[in-house]
Amino acid sequence: MNRTPWLLGLLALGTLAFTLGACAPAPQTGPADGFALRPALAGERRTLWLPDFGPVVYYADPRGQGRPLVLTHSVNAAASAYEVRPLWNVYAGTRPVYALEWPGFGSSSRPDVRYTPELMARSLAALIAQLNTEVDVVALSLGSEFAARVALDDPRVRSLALISPSGFGPARGGSQQAGQAGEGEALYRRLNSVGGVLYSTLRTRPSLQYFLSRSFRGPVPGDVVEYAADTSRQPGARYAPLYFISGQLFHPDAFGALYSRLTTPTLVLYDQDAFVSFDRLPAFAQQPNATVQRIAGTDGLPHFEKLADVKAALDTFWIKIP
Question: Which residue range(s) make up the domain with 293?
Answer without folding.
Answer: 5-319
